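Quick one: structure tokens for this chain, please?
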Amino acid sequence: MIENPLKDWGFFKTYKAPDPLSNRISEFQEKIFNWNEAEYELRNQRKERKLIWGNGERLFDRLYFLRGFENLMIDFATDNPNLPKLIEMLYEYEKKLIKKWLDIGVDIIWFHTDIGTQTGLMISPQMFRRYLKDMYKDLFTLCRKKGVHVYLSSDGNIIDIIDDLIDCGISMHDPQTGAIKTEDIKKHYKGKICIYLDIDRQKLPYYKPEEIEKTIINYINELNSEQGGLMFLAGIVDATGPIRNIEVLCETLIKNCF
């Protein structure tokens, strides 16, 4: 049974965050993450002149994993005095983790922070700036001062704080075309950061081949910029759509991006 370890604030007095430098189960790969093995693998990647990635793990979503989503929303709404203490605990954990990756010598650090819904933020922009922005800025600044890029992955419509996140130091974000309008991406992203465009995976299987080609070319024309860059993310998550859609997607990207 999966539970939120801090669903009751009474548990917070005795709760201790795990040590990010310990070998532990990786939440994404479901196996033991070993720092010595990671360093060995990254050294080999460096020899092969590959881009070296570090995993900064989770930010906002770590808070609702700990408290439970409804509890966390109430915490923000009521200005619960324990909330800043929990955020500080997360900050200290993340700072230690990031410094380890920087010591190893990575090129870019990936962070995950799902804070958007289909139509807007889970909390108000004012709440983000009051409680979270300083933490984000301090952590991302650690990276940027070392010449390390910051890739922030955050689903949903976060357009109301994207300027804040750019101010915090992100280098790349993956806006979802199913949640954020192209004109808003163009206005807030283009020429400022690298756009890792997440094509609407709910619609992609149902497009006609000619619609896919037209859509991709439109994104390229509207969003491509030498200053910030444009990349594409196309998630094919099941066998719903025809294989021809995948072929046309790849053909269009190869023809127009290489």
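The chain is about 45% helix and 10% strand.
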